[in-house]
Amino acid sequence: MKPYRRKLSAEDVETGSILIEKSWWKRFPPPLEEFGVRVSGQPFVTTIVAEDCDCIGEPHQHYHLEAGHFAHLLDFSRGATVVIEPSPGAYMIANG
Predict the structure, then answer these.
(1) Sign of CA dihedral 48, 53, 55, 57
(2) What domain range includes position 52?
């Protein structure tokens, strides 16, 4: 799988999460399933949270990777790019 890249929005920074675009949902574990990530060489466990929304007038969901517990190890500011890459046993998360 190629890496997932996300330019952080103000909402990402405010919520301490990383929006996962719908076209990438199947490349991540399902919502609420814990999985491993590594940030700056440190292991963490996180989840994807599904948020119900009707921002386009129709009910749908947004998926967010919970990052608040390791965001301090990244440039987690609006406009910074985060790269998430699968690796044996964990997803690697870094700025890129």
Answers:
(1) positive
(2) 4-95
Which residues are 81's β-sheet partners?
Answer: 7
As for how many domains the chain has, the answer is 1
Q: Which of 29, 17, 33, 11 is nearest to 82 (CA)?
A: 17
Q: Are β-strands 81-87 and 17-20 bridged in parallel, bridged antiparallel, or unpaired? A: unpaired
CA 27 vs CA 7, 24, 54: distances in Å: 18, 5, 24
Any idea what the CATH number is for the domain that residue 12 is in? 2.40.330.10
20-77 pLDDT, tens digit per residue, is 999 999 999 999 999 999 999 999 999 999 998 878 788 889 999 999 999 999 999 9
- DSSP annotation of 66: E
pTM: 0.92
